[in-house]
Write a structure and sequence with these properties.
Elements (H helix, E strand, L loop, with lengths): L1 E5 L7 H16 L3 E4 L9 H9 L3 H4 L2 H29 L9 H4 L6 E4 L27 E7 L8 H11 L4 E4 L2 H9 L17 H5 L11 E4 L5 H14 L3 E5 L10 E4 L3 H9 L3 E4 L2 H9 L4 E3 L7 H11 L21 H22 L3
Helix pairs in contact: 2-4
């Protein structure tokens, strides 16, 4: 079959890139042809993306000098990150022609169109939902499916729920990434074939290690942070001091350099994976950071994001029985001594990986 996947592959972050790489690789391993639809929203990239993001920053947007400062702080790092991620996308992904509009998307041809993983059904930078990620451009009669689709949150207005019902009812088959998404679809009266693993967990640690050209050496505590969370920054510094190890921060956003730890800015994909694989401890508020820590059997601590997106993090912890890795008391460092026994976790992953790949195979076939 010829399968084309639309997903959030364009943001300059490792989760978006790695889940796209995994989706492509696993579908190809099932014997199909696969491409990632190279769909770009102009207001989410480069300077325009920064200006769009600024609209949601109430403490910055209402003052001209602050707006100018925000752009000046963000643009140089974003430009460098875009250049580096463009190279990684070109190297690791098979992409269609570039699409900017519904008209561009309607020119695509495939036996199966798939909405991929990540927060494809959640609000974008401008706070709106894009019907392209609901395969609105696909003609009737062509198979439309989702693999590990995610809403990114669990609370929506009545008007958004009405739009979801209309758009999701057009799919031939739906699978989602979080248990909370299964419940949402059930509440809305929409058929769902269940929860499946995030694509990054469909590849095992050996397969991901194949992307690592040179392993990072030395003992360190790693912080991989997605949200602006001073609580996590402060805890990470004190945790590293408690265990007597240096703190290393890996990030595609240059402004995190002021938050503490030795900054590793926007490393190549294999180097990023190596930092997670070889960390003595990892602290993260990232769903994909958590996923890779589990995949590499890295000892990790979870700080839930201080917004409405924590359900996705909790879902993977519940699935693997690792809810006790959530930091509750920010003066407690006892998790350093409570090591994860990954034997049972790996058995759970092995079983869930097999079931999810089977489901993906069904989605790709008539």
């Amino acid at each position: 079959m010829e399968v084309k996947v639309i997903t959030r592959h364009t943001p300059n972050n490792y989760g978006s890139l790695l889940q796209s790489v995994a989706t492509l690789r696993v579908i190809e391993s099932l014997g199909h042809q696969c491409e990632i639809i190279d769909y770009w929203k102009r207001n989410e990239v480069g300077l325009q993306g920064i200006l769009t993001s600024l609209q949601g920053k109430t403490s910055w947007k209402n003052n001209l000098l602050k707006r100018m400062a925000y752009v000046a702080l963000r643009y140089p790092g974003e430009k460098i990150a875009t250049q580096r991620f463009d190279k990684m996308r070109a190297r690791y992904l098979k992409l269609t022609h570039r699409c900017y509009s519904s008209e561009d998307l309607k020119l695509l041809r495939a036996d199966v169109f798939m909405t991929g993983s990540d927060q494809v059904w959640g609000p974008l930078l401008d706070g709106k939902h894009d019907e392209a990620y609901f395969l609105s451009f696909v003609k009737e009669g062509i198979r439309k499916v989702s693999y590990a689709g995610s809403f990114g949150r669990t609370e929506f207005s009545d008007s958004i729920v009405a739009s979801y019902k209309r758009m999701l009812s057009r799919y031939n088959a739906l699978t989602v990434r979080e248990s909370s998404a299964v419940r949402l679809l059930e509440d809305w009266g929409i058929d769902c074939e269940g929860q499946v693993l995030d694509p990054t967990l469909l590849l095992d640690s050996n397969q991901w290690s194949g992307y690592i050209k040179k392993n990072v050496k030395g003992d360190y505590v790693l912080i991989y942070e997605i949200h602006n969370n001073p609580r996590l920054d402060d805890y990470a510094k004190r945790f590293a001091a408690h265990v007597g190890l240096p703190l290393v921060r890996v990030s595609p956003t240059l402004h995190q350099a002021t938050r503490g730890g030795k900054m590793i800015f926007c490393p190549e994909l294999g180097t990023f994976l190596s930092y997670i694989k070889n960390a003595r401890y990892m602290l993260t508020d990232s769903f994909h950071g958590t996923a890779f820590a589990i995949n590499f059997n890295t000892q990790f601590l979870e700080v839930l994001p201080n917004n409405k997106t924590g359900a996705r993090n909790q879902s993977i912890l519940q699935l693997t029985g690792l809810q006790d890795r959530i930091v509750i008391d920010f003066d407690d460092f006892s998790l350093a001594d409570r090591q994860i026994d990954y034997a049972e976790v790996n058995e759970i992953l092995k079983e869930e990986r097999w079931k999810s790949v089977e489901k993906l195979a069904e989605l790709c076939a008539y």
